[in-house]
Amino acid sequence: MVEVPLRRRATVADRPGRIRRVVASIPAGCVATYGQVADLAGLGRGARQVGRVLAALPEGTDLPWQRVIAATGRLALPAGSPAFRTQVRLLRAEGVAVRRGRVDLARHGWRPDLDELLWGPAPAAMP
DNA sequence: CTGATGACTATAG
DNA sequence: CCTATAGCCATCA
Q1: Helix and strand tally (H, E) in chain A?
Q2: What is the CB-side half-sphere exposure of residue A35 using CA atoms within 13 A?
Q3: Cβ burial, residue A110 (10 Å; 0-12/13-18/19+)
Q4: In 3D, which of A92, A76, A86 has the Cα closest to residue A37?
Q5: With bands split at pLDDT 50, 70 and 90, how would you rate the model's confidence at A111?
Q6: Does the CB of A103 fall within 7 Å of any strand B atom?
Q7: Nearest-nucleotide field for A52 (CA, C1')
Q8: What letter would DSSP give residue A67?
């Protein structure tokens, strides 16, 4: 099953899938940075590749793409664009405070390690 | 093969 | 905090 994938080992063809898997594991109410997702997906410094995958997502996707933001805490989409506003709306809907296109990473940043501490290791699969 | 292009990032001023 | 710059890296013309 391989949940949070082993770092550094993805063939180019597997990367999109790994990236989507990591994004899907970001809990609601939290945000992760492009670089963080890339690292967890085994891409090393492939932050831009994460952006590429998210940009290619179909419109009604189930993937919580809104939880991925830039390392500075700012949303990466062009401020004011339709997609930007959608992201703000989705984030606020799940309890994330967004102010001037920014999120406080100290407050909402996803910490997988802490996640495991609180929820226990290997979330196992749900029927 | 070379060069341009990004939902990126770290650093310097 | 903001802009400018230089790395980064898969894709594509």
Answers
A1: 6, 2
A2: 6
A3: buried
A4: A76
A5: very high
A6: no
A7: B7
A8: G
